[in-house]
Write a structure and sequence with these properties.
The protein is mainly alpha-helical. It has eleven helices and nine strands. Helix 4 (91-107) crosses helix 6 and helix 4 packs antiparallel against helix 8. The chain starts with a helix and ends with a helix. The protein folds into three domains: 2-66, no CATH class; 91-253, no CATH class; 261-353, no CATH class. The chain is globular, with a radius of gyration of 22 Å.
């Protein structure tokens, strides 16, 4: 074990929002992407990671060397710390409701006893962090059947109304992700000045998924794992309609990651420009859909983030001065990341929470690729 620990090396990979744990110096260059399958993407401080590896190294070793989404899903909860409060005001909060409903539709392929999505704890015990008496109520439509998107949003709580949320793809029962998100924004930030503005809140996981608690990034990973488990149990090949529902889930998950990265971008750009001595190269992510709503806090904004690779590679590698500038840029970026995402400064608490949740979505995406080539 001591021999193994001496080979461990930590390096922040800003361009992929990850802390890489490698076993050779080949992973020290943040512009390299080879060998990722031999690394673990970790979400803890280095000292905590080493302690965890002391306890779990043999288990991790066997899990990492194998492929398949089950191992990815099992690995993640062991090495992440959990985010309880992550505000999802605005467009991304709408998208996360859509993602949940897409998961709810896929969950219908499971038998009644295996379904988890669309269940709410009847009485949540905040003191113990458990569902009292393990009683879970299932979302039901007015006629007693499965809920549509309108009804599920109302079931989650703090909803303005039980209609006006959903927009379906013509000829299907699947949500049009963008139009449904626009409907959600219209309900909360109507253009009519006489209509009240309502904040879009995150729903607690225990109001959405059986076995859910209060830890949002744990919920994100569990949700993806449940969808992948469902896929494995289904007879193959899938029908066109079944494939379409999985595709709609993946598309919504991509839009959530995009929105969270875009919303966080201005804070990241501002801090990078303030703390780096090298010119910060930015990447335009396109128009923020929430910008179309004048009364939204995100009105008039554009999604933009830091292009970490371009910030490093703007200097020529074939000169001594350029190579030195690249080395300095990498060092400054790593220091920025330690301060912004890994430190204990309370001013950066929301940034750390954003990092954790986005990594959870990426973890679910990687697991989906391993399971079903999403």
């Amino acid at each position: 074990m001591q021999k193994f620990h001496r080979k461990l090396s930590f390096h922040l990979r800003p361009e992929s929002h990850s802390l890489m744990l490698g076993t050779s110096r080949a992973f020290h260059d943040p512009t390299r992407t080879k060998g990722l399958s031999r690394c673990l993407r970790l979400r803890l401080s280095p000292c905590c990671v080493v302690r965890l590896f002391t306890l779990y190294s043999s288990l991790f070793h066997s899990l990492v060397l194998r492929s398949g989404c089950r191992y990815e899903a099992l690995l993640f909860p062991l090495i992440s710390y959990f985010v309880v409060r992550v505000w999802a005001s605005g467009y991304q909060g709408c998208l996360e409701r859509i993602l949940l409903y897409n998961a709810y539709q896929i969950d219908e392929y499971n038998g009644p006893n295996d379904r988890k999505i669309g269940f709410k704890c009847r009485q949540w015990d905040a003191a113990t962090g458990t569902c009292r008496n393990n009683q879970w109520d299932e979302c039901r439509s007015r006629t007693g059947g499965r809920c549509n998107f309108d009804e599920l949003c109302f079931f989650l709580g703090r909803a303005l109304r039980n209609n006006g949320w959903q927009a379906l793809i013509p000829g299907t029962d699947r949500l049009d992700v963008r139009l449904s998100a626009q409907n959600c924004m219209n309900l909360h930030y109507p253009n009519n000045p006489a209509s009240p503005i309502r904040r879009i809140y995150n729903f607690p996981p225990h109001s959405a998924m059986k076995g859910g608690g209060t830890k949002w990034n744990e919920f994100v990973v569990d949700l993806s794992a449940h969808i992948n488990d469902t896929y494995r149990r289904m007879p193959k090949p899938l029908t066109d309609e079944e494939n379409a529902k999985f595709s709609n889930f993946d598309y919504a998950a991509d839009r959530v990651r995009e929105a969270r990265t875009g919303d966080h971008g201005p804070h990241l750009v501002r801090n990078a420009q303030a703390r780096l001595t090298v010119p910060v190269v930015t990447r335009n992510m396109g128009a923020n859909p929430a910008a179309a709503f004048p009364r939204s806090p995100q009105a008039g904004t554009v999604w933009q983030t830091v292009d970490w690779v371009a910030t490093v590679t703007q200097f020529p590698a074939n000169t001594v001065a350029g190579a030195l500038a690249r080395s300095n840029a990498r060092a400054e970026i790593s220091a920025l990341w330690r301060w912004f995402y890994r430190g204990t400064d309370r001013v950066n608490e929301s940034a750390r929470e954003h990092f954790q949740v986005n990594e959870s979505y990426r973890q679910g995406h990687r697991a989906s690729i391993r399971c079903r080539g999403a």
